[in-house]
Design a protein that fits this description.
Distance between the termini: 16 Å
CATH topology: Rossmann fold
Structural class: alpha/beta
Strand content: 15-25%
CATH architecture: 3-Layer(aba) Sandwich
CATH class: Alpha Beta
Number of strands: 7
Radius of gyration: 14 Å
């Protein structure tokens, strides 16, 4: 199998929307993904996500934190997917929540990554999602 880090250029030009209220997490994700050539956009909460979706081109992938200050990220993703079934959403979280992987799958998300995020695993998942 090919190395995701070496093939990260498959994300070049892809728009990734990162929804996370934590500044350190946003900086970390930017550092992790900037070399891939992806176009990165950031919002901090559910309210900003709704505004973004209503006024910007549809992202290729949304990477959404499970625990946002104003919403449950998985529930919010499910609401978005009900309105726009073509969206591709991946959850990310620092919390080991029993049944989260199944909940994400049941709600139509493309996966879930756990912090501390492994760069290879994240790139592999994102590449799979955008194919």
């Amino acid at each position: 199998m090919s190395d995701p880090v070496n093939n990260a250029m498959g994300l070049a030009g892809k728009r990734i929307l990162i929804v996370d209220d934590d500044t350190v997490s946003r900086i970390f994700l930017r550092e992790l993904l900037v070399q891939s050539g992806a176009v990165l956009d950031f919002v901090r909460n559910g309210y900003e996500l709704q505004k973004y979706i209503g006024s910007n081109p549809e992202p290729d992938v949304i990477l959404i934190d499970v625990k946002l200050p104003d919403a449950d990220g998985v529930e919010l993703a499910a609401q978005l997917l009900a309105k726009k079934p073509g969206l591709r959403v991946v959850a990310e979280t620092a919390y080991a929540i029993e049944g989260l992987d199944e909940k994400c799958r049941d709600y139509g998300l493309k996966g879930c990554v756990y912090k501390p995020i492994n760069k290879d695993e994240l790139l592999k998942l994102l590449l799979k999602v955008v194919e």
